[in-house]
Amino acid sequence: MNQKKIGTFIAECRKRKKMTQLELAEKLGVTDRSVSNWENGVCLPDASLYRLLCDILQISINELFAGEFVCNENYKNVADDNLLILLEHRLYDTTSKEITFDEFHNSLKRISEITLLLQRFEDKQEAITYLVNETGLSEEECTSAYDIYMKMFDYK
């Protein structure tokens, strides 16, 4: 992850929204100095602020980590790259079970494949019915999984 690039992107998006560093800071509950540090590549925002920051700037978390706007055609590759970078930098919580790089990478590929597959369905119920038939899980579990996938990749 390139902190400088991410910082420059945060500044660009903030300015596009015609906001000052102080205005952004107030919306996030941080100091304007914190925003300045992010924008200058000194540090990254706290992970607890990512969702709100992205909502305010109207960008995806994937775009935040990429430090640039990401077109739909390149979205999967950028998402994969961002998650692999997080793994390499150990910026994720593995809970009590350590996972190998191969296990993580295979899971990541499967998540990307499923997310792309789910986008092909006309509506949510059609996708959930497919998941129930393919996995044998309950409709409730499949609905929850569908919602997580769509939220994770900012699909509506």
From TrEMBL:
Keyword Zinc: no
HTH cro/C1-type domain boundaries: 10-64
Segment forming the signal sequence: none
UniProt entry keywords in alphabetical sequence: DNA-binding
Entry superkingdom: Bacteria
Gene3D superfamilies: lambda repressor-like DNA-binding domains
Molecular functions per Gene Ontology: DNA binding
SMART domains, sorted: HTH_XRE
Keyword DNA-binding: yes
Pfam families xrefs: HTH_3
Record protein name field: Helix-turn-helix domain-containing protein
